[in-house]
């Protein structure tokens, strides 16, 4: 969220609340007619096969749209258009300052359509409207503005060779980039790709998740309105094993920028190997440890952050602090305080601006979360809070914030990514044990340490094998810092200037001066 250290919106964001309280979101939802075609070569088109899939709202099971189900034929067409425009230089050869102007216009249009986009996001994936408005839309706008502003301020290099030569090290766009993204933050995850990919001069094919395709389509429409040349930004809604696989196997896609599960990330690397060895950048899952030491002086603050770290966005967060590692002397007090906070996070109508916890994205994800809750019980963890499906009468998919105590590190709820509002609390005595448990994971996305001792904080931050480590906070967020994981949490980093490394090739040019 711009101007704030944290991803979560402040509970007392009164400005926003007063603006949104006066909007009848249900009335607006009833009038909404979402665009549901693919965007290929600047045109809204049906899939070549004519196939469509139902886009269902997890809030009440309502069909929002019948969305074009693109497949290999559509992927071929879109790649051809993207390649053609790239080679022609309509975008790739434009001066960075011109690309910046278009991208800033694009960002302005997103901002101007913020309420519409927020509503689409909430209806499509179930998150509270207050979060779509306070987090997803502004973060998307900021991301686009930041990369737009960056692109005409980057210089290339001259190597320190002998006087007889001039060696230039320049960056060039990699070419045709396919971005495949998940459903938990549909716009933000897409923006983390769209902004650096386009700023660097590439052509883009965006495949949104089949569970949340609507805002991606709308973003591409707004990009065209902003003046992006046709074919530069294409959107291919459809399924992973059809449209996604076709992109990853395509011989003329130069790079895949993927965010999603580790299992899919592995498949994408294989497709790249089977086809043209396209570059693969993977942002995958996590099971992040949040370590709280007994010496941390502000237990309510740590508790609140621990609750937000797992219950924000219904726990559908790659970086969720899903493993709470708490030092034994404060275990009972900390858990009581987290539970107190969690009780205020009652799942509610996502279109009500007061709601803090919305719906789980779909029935399959709901069953997955409930299955993990069952496994926690069966393996002997103590259910300290929640554990139930709620609001079933709405036909929507809602689960209570859930806390398990007495979790053992080998239980499934301590090892596997649940991607729902389920906290697994593990207690420890010595910090070395906590670091050992924290690192004993195939994932390495995020981690946190809470302590008053600066030496302990530094040493622990170094010892934790994670791409992001938080000290005395959780989910601090800004577009200026890289985000991504160690181990099976991924390869490469989103955000910051480092993202340009993924979407540019380094070229060395030798000029003989002898
Ligand atoms: P997913 O892997 O099921 O799907 C992600 C995307 O990949 C979707 O667009 C899907 O259609 C596509 N896909 C699925 N199978 C494919 C295939 N065989 N070939 C090509 N594409 C395919 O993940 P999800 O359920 O949408 O998202 C949840 C996961 O995303 C979690 O594991 C979460 O941790 C992760 N995630 C990671 C980050 C990060 O930055 N590291 C951010 C958000 C989410």
Radius of gyration: 23 Å
Major β-sheet strand ordering: 14-17-18-13-12-20-21
Q: Strand pairing plus helix content: what structural class?
A: alpha/beta
The major pleated sheet works out as: 7 strands, mixed
Give your account of this protein's structure:
40% of the residues lie in helices and 20% in strands. The chain is built from 17 helices and 24 strands. The strands form 7 sheets. It has a 7-stranded mixed beta sheet with strand order 14-17-18-13-12-20-21, sandwiched between helices. A 6-stranded mixed beta sheet has the order 9-8-7-10-11-23, with helices on both faces. Helix 5 (114-125) packs across helix 6 and helix 6 (129-151) packs parallel to helix 7 (186-199). It is globular. The relative contact order is 0.14. The protein binds nicotinamide-adenine-dinucleotide. Nicotinamide-adenine-dinucleotide binds next to helix 9 and helix 10.
